[in-house]
Amino acid sequence: MLKWATCQLLLAGLAASWCVADELDTSIARGEKIYQQECLECHMDDGTGVPEVFPHLAGSATFAKSADRIIDSILAGNEGQLVLDGQNYTGLMLPVPLENAEILDLLRYIYASWYPQSKVKLDVKMIQLRRALAAEKKQEP
Ligand code: HEC
User: What start and end residues bound the annotated signal peptide (predicted)?
Assistant: First the structure.
């Protein structure tokens, strides 16, 4: 009896982790589509960008440690002087109108593709926080 109960618990656990993995995969697949539609034309298919014109989203020491600047770029765009990993940029990127869930999909795609070793935790809460901070900044005179 006990054996059966343990077995059922084990099975439930397995199913749960399988479902989570499946959910993550579909999220990454959605993120890939968003990347192709919204970012690829400037930041390139493989995220390498164009040095001194379009910053690299792949292979950055900065983004390996934090997703904040990626989220901020999507929410508020970028203008004027920008330094990323020692390279200078003086271009313009307009904000990209995406929902929080879409930004999470996109980040999961970026991190799964180019930062598989990164310890950055991705969740909707961090995106909500950056959105609140961006809104506050906008209100400053
Ligand atoms: C039309 C071209 C274009 C598109 C589309 C675009 N960007 Fe950018 N992006 C730029 C340019 C140009 C810069 C540099 C801006 C500057 O020099 O201030 C930049 C900068 C960035 C940076 C660097 C920010 C930092 O603080 O180092 C990130 C991250 C970024 N973009 C992410 C994205 C993501 C994610 C998308 C898609 C949702 C996207 N960009 C779409 C042109 C683009």
Answer: 1-21
Cα dihedral: 118, 45, 70, 42 (round 10): 160
Tokens coding 115: 């930062």
pLDDT in tens, 16-31: 887 788 899 999 999 9
Beta bridge partners of 83: 88
Phi-psi region of 91 (alpha: psi -120 to 50; beta: other; left: phi over 0): beta
| 41 CA distance to ligand 1 middle (Å) | 10
Q: How many A from CA of 2 to the centre of ligand 1? A: 57
Does the CB atom of residue 93 touch ligand 1 within 6 A? yes
Q: Which residues of 94-111 are buried (b: 16+ CB within 10 A; e: fewer)?
A: eebebebebbbbbbbbbb
The pTM (predicted TM-score) of the whole model is 0.90
- 41-83 pLDDT tens trace: 999 999 999 999 999 999 999 999 999 999 999 999 999 899 9
Q: Where do the domains of the chain lie, and which CATH numbers do they carry?
A: 2-139 (1.10.760.10)
Is the beta carbon of 79 within 6 A of some atom in ligand 1?
Answer: yes
